[in-house]
Amino acid sequence: MKKIAIITGASSGLGRDFVKQIDRKYNLDEIWMIARREEKMNNIAKKLKKAKGIVIKADLLKLEEIEKISEKLYKEKPKVCILVNSAGFGKIGNFIDLSLEEQLSMIDLNVKALTALTYKVIPYMPKGSRIIQIASSAGFLPQPGFNIYAATKAFVIHFSKALNIELKQKRIKVLAVCPGPVKTEFFNIASSKGKPLDWKSKLMVNSRDVVCKALRDSDENKMESIYGSLIKGFKIISRIIPHSIILKLFKWN
Ligand SMILES: NC(=O)c1ccc[n+]([C@@H]2O[C@H](COP(=O)([O-])OP(=O)(O)OC[C@H]3O[C@@H](n4cnc5c(N)ncnc54)[C@H](OP(=O)(O)O)[C@@H]3O)[C@@H](O)[C@H]2O)c1
Known about the structure:
alpha/beta, globular, 7 strands, 253 residues, 10 helices, Rossmann fold, binds NADP nicotinamide-adenine-dinucleotide phosphate
């Protein structure tokens, strides 16, 4: 039975770096790469060193496309050693200023698709396998001006930590990755209607470093991966200072 990894959001950013690093670090037969931009995934697949890259063009906002992945799993019955849910997007702006459609899409991709795919994949995961969910430090706190996105990521953090406990019996580990700002295409999409993000670009870290730490943390059976002392500090502050006080410091608009 072939051993595989399934990685969503494989066409760019963190997902692309997970594809590259998982290929080098583990001995897998195939990496199933999922996103909408086929061409980009084909180029990444060509450069893999060990595993065969299987490109699956899918729009995860459509549940029927998740169903097609489920059917492929049922037909081929691989051992899924690693699942990485990295597909996701955020839109900056106040709740009433963004369209309802784009906010519901954030929920559909960041929450619904991640939940559905996790559910469909678990039956194919053997003992010792791992699920890596890409959350965000945005999920540590309510975030005015990034409201729905932060709420979707809070869901991912809570869901992943509870699932980690639920799946202990099956010896499947679950890691929530909570990055701060990372240099990817994310902010091009997030800020299309928003404000300049100069302050964020100064804080941005490299995607490959976040991924390297996440894989190390998963190897060490951690349930949360936070890269960088700044974001670790942010997490501590979000735990010890009441949210009502922190929210007063938010400068938005
Ligand atoms: N960059 C940051 O600062 C940051 C910080 C914290 C957390 N995150 C999280 O990290 C994850 C990866 O984001 P990134 O930073 O790597 O951004 P990115 O470069 O924009 O990557 C997003 C990925 O999601 C895929 N995607 C988007 N919509 C999709 C859809 N409808 N169906 C299937 N795939 C879809 C994109 O592929 P296609 O466009 O080809 O479909 C792309 O591969 C996201 O969950 C994001 O929330 C990012």
